[in-house]
């Protein structure tokens, strides 16, 4: 049996072996054999992901711009902040800057990082950097090939209400809207 409230150095697992089970365009799946702090062995199934960036455009009237997009794992359209995966060699800020223009058509005069999130650290390495975009100028969007989006404009307060009522289910969007609302005193 494990211990509660043990020192942090007693929490680490030692990797004994690692085997790639799948390697795709977006992520890789490995299975690791590990030695637990107790000396027993166990396996860990891990999704390795380059990470992503999520950016919330907020205009001078405190409106936000969100995306409606079909999400295949859930077989439904979901409302989300613009976001995307970080490409090989790309910095999170570059990804966020690219995604806001591709998905909304806006270029931001000011972008600031407001947080990071790891949604499923039990099995996935994905970390998403969260950004706030202001001083918006519309230049025209250019979604990726095969990406079908609908742009939705709404007051930040309404978006926060949708987060709190569970109408916005996406975690990165919930967090970036919550951070933005706090930043603007909503």
Compact description:
The protein has helices spanning 92-104, 156-164, 171-183; strands at 14-23, 27-35, 41-49, 52-57, 63-71, 76-80, 83-85, 106-117, 128-138, 150-155. With 186 residues, it is of the alpha+beta class.
Tally of distinct domains? 2
Radius of gyration: 19 Å
Strand order of the largest sheet: 7-4-9-8
So, the CATH homologous superfamily of the largest domain?
A: Nucleoside Triphosphate Pyrophosphohydrolase
CATH architecture of the largest domain: Alpha-Beta Complex
Mean pLDDT: 93
**Biggest β-sheet strands, sense, barrel:** 4 strands, mixed
Q: Structural class of the secondary elements?
A: alpha+beta
The counted number of beta strands is 10
Overall geometry comes to: globular
Give the helix tally.
3
Head-to-tail CA distance between termini: 46 Å
CATH class of the largest domain: Alpha Beta
Percent of sequence in beta strands: 35-45%
What would you call the quaternary organization? single chain
List the helices and strands and how they pair.
Elements: E1 14-23, E2 27-35, E3 41-49, E4 52-57, E5 63-71, E6 76-80, E7 83-85, H1 92-104, E8 106-117, E9 128-138, E10 150-155, H2 156-164, H3 171-183
Parallel strand pairs: 4-9
Antiparallel strand pairs: 1-2, 2-3, 4-7, 5-6, 5-10, 8-9
Descriptive overview:
This protein has 2 domains: 8-49, no CATH class; 52-183, Nucleoside Triphosphate Pyrophosphohydrolase. It is 19% helix and 43% strand. The protein has helices at 92-104, 156-164, 171-183, and strands spanning 14-23, 27-35, 41-49, 52-57, 63-71, 76-80, 83-85, 106-117, 128-138, 150-155. The strands form 3 sheets. A 4-stranded mixed sheet has the order 7-4-9-8, with helices on both faces. Strands 1-2-3 form a 3-stranded antiparallel sheet, with no helix packed on it. The model has no long low-confidence stretch (mean pLDDT 93).
């Amino acid at each position: 049996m494990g211990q509660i409230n043990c020192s942090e150095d007693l929490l680490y697992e030692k990797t004994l072996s690692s085997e790639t089970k799948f390697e795709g365009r977006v992520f890789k799946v490995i299975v690791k054999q590990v030695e637990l702090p107790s000396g027993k062995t166990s396996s860990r199934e891990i999704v390795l992901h380059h990470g992503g960036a999520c950016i919330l455009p907020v205009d001078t009237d405190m409106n936000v711009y969100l995306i409606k997009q079909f999400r295949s794992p859930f077989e439904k359209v979901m409302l989300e902040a613009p976001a995307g995966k970080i490409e090989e060699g790309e910095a999170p800020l570059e990804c966020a800057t690219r995604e806001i223009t591709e998905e909304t058509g806006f270029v931001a005069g000011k972008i600031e990082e407001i947080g990071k999130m790891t949604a499923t650290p039990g099995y996935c390495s994905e970390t998403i950097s969260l950004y706030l975009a202001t001083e918006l100028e519309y230049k025209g969007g250019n979604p990726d090939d095969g990406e079908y989006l609908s742009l939705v404009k709404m007051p930040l307060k309404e978006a926060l209400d949708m987060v709190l009522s569970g109408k916005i289910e996406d975690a990165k969007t919930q967090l970036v809207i919550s951070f933005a609302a706090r930043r603007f005193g909503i």
